[in-house]
Every structure is written in C-alpha cells, then in structure tokens.
Amino acid sequence: MQKIEHLGIAVRDLAVAVPLFEKLLNTPCYKQEVVDSENVTTAFFQTGESKIELLQSTDPGGVIAKFIEKKGEGMHHVAFAVNDIHAEIARLKSEGFQFINETPKPGADNKLVCFLHPKSTGGVLVELCAERPGTSEE
Ligand code: ZN
Known about the structure:
Elements: E1 3-10, H1 14-25, E2 31-35, E3 40-47, E4 50-57, H2 63-71, E5 74-81, H3 85-94, E6 105-107, E7 111-116, E8 126-131
Bound molecules: zinc ion.
C-alpha cells in the first residue's frame, strides 16, 4: 500500500462540519460530491499528501446514518492508496482477510474502491482505493 489516501469521518450535518474542519485544518473544502452507490454526500480537504473525507448520509437508513446511530459522529474508515487494486485484493484474500465488496466499485473523488470487513482488520474499516482508469487528475 502506498500511503494513507484519506481518513473518512462520519458527520450528521456537512453544513456544520465543513466550516468546523475548515477552521480546524486551516484549509478550504475543495470538493463536495454525492456518491449515490453509498448514499452519502462527501466533502474533501487536502492535508499534506493525505485527505480528510467527511461523510453525511443522504438516506436515514444508509450505512453512515446507521454508524452514527450506533457510535455517534467520528472516525469511520481509513483509506489506503494502492497501485493495482485487483492485485491487492487477491493478496489480501490469500492472507485470509474478508471483504465487504471484493469487486471494486466507483467511489468519490474519481476512485475505484473496495472495503475490508472490520471483523478481519482489528475493528478498523479499511478502504482500498485506486485511480479510476482514464480519470486521473493528479
Ligand atoms: Zn473513503
């Protein structure tokens, strides 16, 4: 894995959380994006070579809404950048890790993403993300 690409933080209300994190990080939110496949609206901040991703549910029954119901707002997942997401999935599967989705799907920020099950990663929800072919902007 190359680096921590971003940390995902679950929030109730981006209208409150975005100005808070702009003050905290002293940097403006550079993008907000709805990810229909996850029922979330995301907001991104650049911090050095990593990012902070705030996630607000667009659906009261969505995964982020359920997470906040159970645990409150806060740290939701750690995302690692990988070069070859398919090779990394194969490697982790052969090591016995369990996946929530082992077929990568389009995520926020022009990425292909997949999630490992926290049961197999010490309680941490881990996201793998790779640039989506043909959409790299960095
Ligand atoms: Zn993420």
